[in-house]
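REQUEST ID: PR-0412
SUBMITTED BY: lab tech R.K.
PRIORITY: routine
TASK: structure prediction, single protein chain
INPUT:
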Amino acid sequence: QVQLVESGGGLVQPGGSLRLSCAASGSIFSINSMGWYRQAPGKQRELVASITSGGNTNYADSVKGRFTISRDNAKNTVSVQMNSLKFEDTAVYYCRLLSGGRLYWGQGTQVTVSS
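STATUS: complete
OUTPUT:
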């Protein structure tokens, strides 16, 4: 019922920037939090950044100071601005929605940082 559509992934050189966006649609009555997770080959999925309905943010230590998460409540979207990208940021990035005590995941978008 609920769909999360991610956009903005792609190939970027080290030091470059990308902006990922996620639009939620469907039967959404409330949003507790939205965030981004990523998973690199052979590694666990990990939190990148999240933001609650109250505006509190949380970032992985590895991205603090480089990534910024934001929300547009009117459009039910969440975005993350990713600056100073590194090889280690290469992963599939997944949008996550927490709504009404249930978790919803996007299909993922590939981010590749390569020279």
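NOTES: Residues 15 and 95 are 23 Å apart (CA to CA).
REVIEWED BY: pending
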